[in-house]
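Hi support team,

I submitted a single chain yesterday and got back a structure, but I'm not sure I'm reading the token output correctly. Could someone confirm the output below corresponds to the sequence I sent? I've pasted both exactly as they appear in my results page.

Thanks,
R.
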Amino acid sequence: MGRLLETKVANIEADELLALIRELEDACSIGSEGFADSPLIHFLTQCVYPEGATGGRASITTKFAASAPLLESRVGKLSDGPLRNLCVELASLANESLEFFGGSKVYMLLNKALPRFSTARQTEKQKRWDAVIHQRRSNRR
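Hi R., thanks for writing in. Yes, this is the structure output for that exact sequence:
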């Protein structure tokens, strides 16, 4: 992960990133107050998983936001600055270069780059194997 993604939300000073957080709060109905001592990646992940990892994924959209000029910006047209740096880190999180997302909007980059959590149910074989591993670990103590 990059430097900006690991920055605590309360420590973010760049006006452009603070404006992006406000737009995300409006678009996703998630408050950033509870994430003041958390890294920015936690807030961004909460935007796509509003009910937590087990609740399912919700795409970030600007449909219900009053105004979201930063989220609607094209990644390829961003000038050098904190938002572009954040997009570079998000692109590397997705194991791609920023040029791959040049025609995408910022909110689309967020949807594509943020981690996906698997909510698939365990098979019976996986459950038995997990029980064996748990038993072996408890025997070590």
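A quick pointer for reading it: Residues 68 and 115 are 23 Å apart (CA to CA). Let us know if anything else looks off.

Best,
Support desk
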